[in-house]
Amino acid sequence: MTRLEDSQWQGDLEQIKGLVTERALRGETMVLNMGPQHPSTHGVLRLLLELDGEEIVSCAPDIGYLHTGIEKNMEAKRYEQAITMTDRTDYLNNMGNNLVFCLAMEKLFDLDVPPRAQYLRVLLAELQRINSHLVWLGTHALDLGALSMMLYCFRERERILDIFEMLSGQRMMTTYIRPGGVWRDTVPEFEPAVRDFLSYFPARIDEYERILTENPLWRDRTQGIGFISAEDAIRYGCSGPTLRGSGVNWDIRKAIPYSSYEDFEFDVPLGQHGDVYDRYMVRIEEMRQSVRIIQQAIDRLPDGPFRSNNRKYVPPPRSELGHSMEAVIHHFKLWTEGFRPPKGEVYVRVESPRGELGCYLVSDGGPRPWRVHFRTPSFMHLSVLPHLTKGHLIADVVGIIGSIDIVLGDCDR
Amino acid sequence: MTILDAVKSIETALPDAFERAYEFRGDITVVVNPAHIVEVCRYCRDTDGLHFDMCSGVTAIDYYPDEPRFALVYHLYSMRHNMSLELKVYLAGDEPVVDSVTGVYPSANWFEREAYDMFGIHFNNHPDLRRILMPDDWEGHPLRKDYPLGYETVQFSFNFDEVNKHKPYAKE
């Protein structure tokens, strides 16, 4: 058995040749595996770090540990069944995933969505954004040492999950947003619960900011690291807070409004320096703006139907089945064969808490989608990670991964 | 400049690359000759008035058993003009090869790796073409239409022996 001093490498060099620089192959730098099971990688992410002392020379992400073949599975299911799978891609943005797939379907079918459903969708998407940002803040701060932040953020999150459970019966994988509107109308407890949440939450954001924003320890660990310039961010396809932290004013809710976002008044926070601290500030401010949108949505929630009436795509309510023959026929058709949309391809993008979430839907005219492709922001941002971490220390890598806010379900699908 | 002017300018500037353009539900798709895809991408990114500086993603589609079997769709977006455009290339055969656009749009890097991994589309001049989602030694390309979904067949009495043959337990 060769001793460690005799051989620099104890494995096959071929596999690693393309991933690390020449210095590693010579043995000058050390290659460290930040393995798929690691508390700070926010999921099953494997990073191959090449280290010169503690400084990172190169970093090669290895993904695919959470790949569950959702896109292939969706090709084998009818459209309504396929929506349930979208919840599970980005598991912190369930409503948003449902929303992007439903918007793609509605664009393809040319299906109308009543205003009440549109406002509800906006309200829930913003609640989901706050939810996701709370998890981000909790885990990011936890990685960098502020251990109590996680418990505070998860405590706030419980209220939001209660609201989701009120509407759909499920805390996370709600599948509440369906093509044509939402699954069912809101319950009477919904409005007081949302108003109650809005009454105390803004003060909580201020409280969390007091812990972190001016804290010299936090600033030391987050300012000046993970820098990306605006041009590079656009070139590498970054979006969302990762792009806005570098000062690029692009928010899909403002640029390409969907689901009646143009009726709402809100600001888009921008960073200046493009480092981890600025991305943190952008997300904190986004939580405040989301509160503003939710306030407007709940104040102006219109009455009316909660789902489209187009019986070719939307099942009739069960009460109608007793006395209407057309309702029975539509119900039968939808439950056995499913609907047959027109042939074509559409691409729809929404602003997920992570960035641009896009859905490219190809239909061949049959009841199952021919191809569904999710352009996920975490996938894109993880490909920029080598660029962001070059020259930093290992401890900074943890902060940078937190700042780009990846969710491995979103990345691997 | 509107999106239609942009498409017109691609048609006039690169006539042998431009095949046709169509519109569906407000989205414009330009079908491009696969041999000239890098040229078209460079034109879209660098020309004044177009400025498609962001490539949101690359999607691969398998139209089995139709020919041409594969298609690649490049989703371009212009920040300055707030325009979206889709470039589509059709690739025939079972081992398609096309040039990589990572020189023009670095954001297409991982998407092309995913298209290679899932569909087997080979990209020339790609800086790092290897499997991304599947394990490195996986055989086959999962999202192709002739690749099975992979669940276990229910073993009834009429197909008992057939399913038994493929079951992975210790047989004598």
How many helical stretches of chain B? 4
Q: Work out the largest interface and the residue count of each chain.
A: A-B, 40 and 40 residues
Summed over residues and divided by their number, the pLDDT of chain A gives a mean of 88
Number of domains of chain B: 1
Gyration radius of chain A, to the nearest Å?
A: 23 Å
According to CATH, the homologous superfamily of chain B is NADH:ubiquinone oxidoreductase Nqo5 subunit
Q: Give me the CATH superfamily of chain A.
A: Cytochrome-c3 Hydrogenase, chain B
Summarize the structure.
Chain A has 413 residues and is mostly helical. In chain A, 47% of the residues lie in helices and 11% in strands. Chain A has a single domain, classed as Orthogonal Bundle (Cytochrome-c3 Hydrogenase, chain B).
How would you explain this protein's 3D organization?
The complex is a heterodimer of chains A (413) and B (172). Chain A is mainly α and 413 residues long. Chain A has a single domain (70-309, 337-378, 399-412), classed as Cytochrome-c3 Hydrogenase, chain B (Orthogonal Bundle). In chain A, 47% of the residues lie in helices and 11% in strands. Chain A contains 16 helices and eight strands. Chain B has one domain: Beta Polymerase, domain 2 (2-Layer Sandwich), CATH 3.30.460.80. Chain B is built from four helices and seven strands. Chain B has helices spanning 3-13, 37-46, 108-119, 160-166; strands at residues 18-24, 27-32, 54-62, 70-78, 83-91, 97-99, 122-124. In chain B, the strands form two sheets. In chain B, strands 1-2-5-4-3 form a five-stranded mixed β-sheet. In chain B, strand 1 and strand 2 (27-32) form a beta hairpin. At the A-B interface, helix 2, strand 6, strand 7, strand 8 and helix 14 of A face strand 3 and helix 3 of B.
